Records
---
Amino acid sequence: MNIESIRLKNIKLQQNNILQKIFHLASNSNYDSTQIRHLNQTLINTAATIETICSSKQATPANLTPSSRKIYSWIKFLTDEQYLQLHLKATGCMLESAKQLLNIHRQNSLQLMIEITNLAGLYQGKRSASVANIIINEGFINAPKAVLQALVESALVGKSQDNTQLIRSFASTGEYTNILLELDLIAEVVAENPQGKFYNLNDLFDKVNREYFAASLAKPRLAWSRINTYRKFGHYESARDRVVMSLTLDDPKVPEFVVEFVLYHELLHKYHGIKWVQGKRMVHTKEFRVSESQFKSYKEASRWLEKLVSFVH
């Protein structure tokens, strides 16, 4: 059955309302956990409403129009309270930098608005006689203070070579690209169907679970993405306890042990969890790397994945 793309008329308005609430909260340095939970609940309710609308049309958020799907993915992403906390912290940090910059340039009368969102580019700066609007890509939520300051300066007063280098350097890191990939994959799954054209993720999970976790790991939700990805072939979403695998691997030319290795890597994220060190999100810890290297065909599978990347690029 072909389902027409679903366009949600008021979704942009809903996003703007949420952005205003986030900015208002970040503007108040004394906000507390109750206010964060209230905002988090607003995000959860909004995402659930969108999912209900899709379900009523016998569809999923993957069937939304590209613009509606992008906003839904952003809202769903921020239902993870850890991401929301990082988002608020980054917004607050940029607001302080922007105020200091406007003060130096004697433009304190300008009204500020800072948005961190699912942007196509890295950042945008929009100014009128009375308003300065800074729009930043969501990938920067865990960026160091120096990078956030560089974004603010570039958006408000224009580019400089040093700032551009700082921004581009962070945008090439795994921290940045992993956020973008997670946003891409939130709605890009085929009704969470573990059965691909060639590989069944349920079968592969059972095998990997037996061999490496003594059949003790609780099964996460397993899904193939609707898009081919070449930078990263799998992703574990802790908030949804879901492993999403790239369609690139669902191919008879790709050996089974390579698909198993990617699945094993993502299951290790579930097994080891996330560690926070000085406010930084650490996923590939020393313990993680030791476990990963215990995969039987580790070197061969790694070479295969490198070959896949170079073949595409």
Note: The longest strand covers residues 111-117.
---
Amino acid sequence: MLPKKILLSVAGILAGALLLSACSSDDNGGTPGGASASDSASPSATPVAVTFEPAGGAAVNPATPVVVKAANGKLVDVTVTNTAKGKTVAGKLATDGLSWTSTEPLGYGSTYKIVAHAQGADGKPIEQDNQISTIAPKKQANANLIPAPAAVSSTGVGVGQPIVFSFGKIAVKNKAEVEKALTVESTPKQEGSWYWIDDSNVHYRPKDYWKAGTQLKVTAKIYGVDFGNGVFGAEDRTETYKVHDSWIAKADGNTEQMQIFHNGAMVKSMPISMGKDATPTHLGAHVISDKQANYTMDSCTYGVCPPDPKAYRSNEKFSERISNDGEFVHENPNSVGQQGSSNVSHGCINLNAANAEWFFQNMGLGDVVEVTNSGGPQLPVWDLYGDWSKSWADWQAGSAVK
């Protein structure tokens, strides 16, 4: 048996050797095989977080897209459902799974339940719900187009045709916001601008007449647009028009002749009789808005009724309206003797039978009748299509977007 002192020394040596062995293993992070303590830990315990836009609470505009986002994980799917109708809203999940966005508008005055399924980095799935409601307008405004696109789809329109949006009996308070939602794209491109004729009607025209053959794409993205006074846009609308050949008639009160130009070349001249001194034809560029082979002209339609001596009612042939206060180009056999020499009408441009029929066959909606030297006042901008009575600077000033 070794002495006690020697045994203590041996024990000390062994303990030191074990201590050195433990220290040398710590060179690779203190775990066998060089793995760190953090590497061997479990995945992050932070759960996936799902957020909703709009968040809910106050009623939202239905044109506002629904956006669902995920953090610390990814979305698996999202369902947005109209609680009253059970209809789901279309949407698209981003390729990275971090967001989902609706691709169609919501409805007015509706409630929607949103259900999002997501999976976190920890591998745990979750379901997150939300609910939103949309505003309910007092009234909705429709974007009525003039001329009606279907009515001119086969014929096209003339080079003087303004594009008109009429909102019926709705008085638009937020004109700038509404105007920003309206666009006219012309091919080839031509400068144009909007002009508010009144609170319910806005017109668009180019700086100069449209070029023959122009294609027009007209869009009203008014759904969800606040018109003011509790009125919101009812629905979006996109239509197209085609501008046909250029037809421009030039009626001169001095020569009592009207010359017709087709694509810039004069093709016909005809004697005319315009409005007499008491009812002179308006000056300026008129745009044809309607044509009827047989038409009853009644001065009462614009407020001149019997027993007023200026009142009249007569049936006329080959009539084309050029303003809303009773001015037409039409046949009048009673004034043939004065045609080419004096003005005797109530404001219309009278033609003989052959010339009236030729004019009717060749001139149509949107074509232009320019009147000079009639002795009358300028055609007012508000008189249906008095758009060309304004200079370009004055026309641009009529836009609500500054």
Note: The chain has four helices and 26 strands.
